[in-house]
Write a structure and sequence with these properties.
about 425 residues; five-stranded parallel sheet; alpha/beta; six-stranded parallel sheet; Rossmann fold
Length: about 425
């Protein structure tokens, strides 16, 4: 009897907790990759635990859920060679799925959580029905970087009497907004060794004058921006929450006033706004081509002339994401705006550019993602879920828009149901 509705799983889909369907197909290469991950020195403990759990399940009583494709190693290797595919595991898995579909004269549903694998597999619509598996909880329930905690007088006394004990159960570099008797009474951060009462200094902007926090989350953000022990920082939040404005004011002061860094390396994935029309090729050198995407900086610095002056003074170096590979930035703030339009690989590439004395600041708003690929493979989600609790990482979700009432109306507009 001809087998119907076979589903072929890539390793990434299994590690993303994609549920197994009855009579699934799993390549021997996938099993080998899971075995290698179990003992890898380069994978984090969370992924290694997942790999061990998957192997145990696949070898247990649930083994009737899946089977090996009946395609020989020699045939798969020949297909890869004839069709000039890269000689790697990803190609082997795709080729095996294609050959299985050809042999059984049935399309195979190919499921992956790897963006590159997804794009390659889509090139074979004759044989593969490709599905990108995305664990939506990764994006919807991201760690905010802080907790609102409501303590009574006794609990508050216990907190202050035991500064070296994590009485609040916080992650490393997680903040707590402490409420008592209906009021906010303190702002605390657990640094891995002790509870710190946060402290920050107000900032000055040449254009806006004195800049200070306008709400509780911004107070936490000021502390995060001013903490040199945390080199990778992320601020998430809706438009008007102050993430880019506050970060740029701090960054310019770090360069011109405090002389802590040499320059800002401004990185933005120059993705056109979803639904807008393409402008086509833009004239000029890299700086001129990037200028339309740099104008949010001009708004904060005062005007376009102030922006051009900062670039000319080498205080700001704008760089296209596509040109960043191979660079190493020393004593710089790698300032990553619109980070919602980054994949996991983009985020890894950017962090790897940080040289001695440098920090990486990510700023983004998932609600303004401009392409489906960034929703399915969210760099922000991977950053938060992978580095949560790491002493070199901190994040704050800014949940309050401080823009005027007219601008805030944008958040109330919904599409048709």
């Amino acid at each position: 009897m001809e087998i119907q509705n076979k589903t072929f799983y890539d390793t990434s889909a299994l590690l993303a907790d994609c549920p197994l369907k009855l009579s699934s197909l799993i390549s021997t290469v996938v099993l080998e990759e899971l075995e290698n991950i179990k003992t890898s020195y380069t994978k984090d403990d969370r992924i290694k635990y997942k790999a061990r759990a998957l192997v145990r399940r696949l070898m247990s009583e649930d083994a009737n859920l899946w089977e090996l494709p009946d395609i020989s190693y020699k045939k798969v290797k020949r297909y890869i060679k004839i069709h000039s595919l890269e000689n790697n595991n990803d190609s082997y898995i795709i080729a095996e799925a294609i050959l299985y579909a050809r042999k059984h004269k049935q399309k195979v549903q190919f499921i992956t959580a790897d963006a590159c694998q997804y794009l390659i597999a889509q090139s074979y619509p004759k044989y593969l029905i490709v599905q990108y598996y995305s664990d939506t909880s990764k994006i919807e329930n991201l760690w905010t970087g802080y907790k609102d905690l409501y303590l009574n007088d006794e609990e508050l006394a216990t907190l202050y009497d035991n500064p070296d004990t994590n009485t609040l159960g916080l992650e490393v570099n997680e903040y707590a907004i402490i409420h008592n008797n209906g009021n906010v009474v303190d702002w605390i951060k657990w640094d891995g060794e002790k509870n710190e009462i946060i402290k920050y200094s107000r900032q000055k902007s040449d254009y806006f004058g004195e800049v200070q926090p306008l709400n509780d989350q911004q107070k936490l953000f000021f502390d995060l921006l001013q903490n040199r022990k945390i080199p990778v920082k992320l601020a998430r939040g809706q438009f008007g929450s102050g993430k880019t404005f506050l970060a740029l004011v701090h960054a310019m002061n770090y360069i011109n006033k405090y002389h802590k860094f040499d320059k800002i390396v401004y990185v933005r994935n120059n993705v056109e706004v979803a639904g807008s029309q393409r402008l086509g090729a833009l004239p000029g050198e890299q700086e001129e081509k990037l200028m339309p995407w740099l104008m949010p900086l001009a708004d904060i610095l005062g005007d376009e002339e102030a922006l051009r002056q900062a670039i000319e003074n080498k205080e700001i170096e704008p760089i296209h994401l596509g040109y960043i590979r191979g660079r190493s930035f020393i004593n710089s703030i790698i300032f990553v705006d619109e980070a919602e339009n980054l994949t996991t690989d983009n985020v890894k590439l950017i962090i790897a550019r940080a040289g001695k004395g440098s920090e990486v600041w990510f700023l983004g708003d998932e609600s303004q993602t401009d392409s489906d690929i960034f929703r399915k493979n969210s760099g922000i989600a991977s950053l938060v879920n992978s580095l949560k609790g790491n002493p070199m990482f901190g994040t704050i979700e800014l949940q309050i828009s401080e823009r005027i009432a007219v601008a805030q109306l944008a958040a109330k507009i919904h599409g048709e149901s």
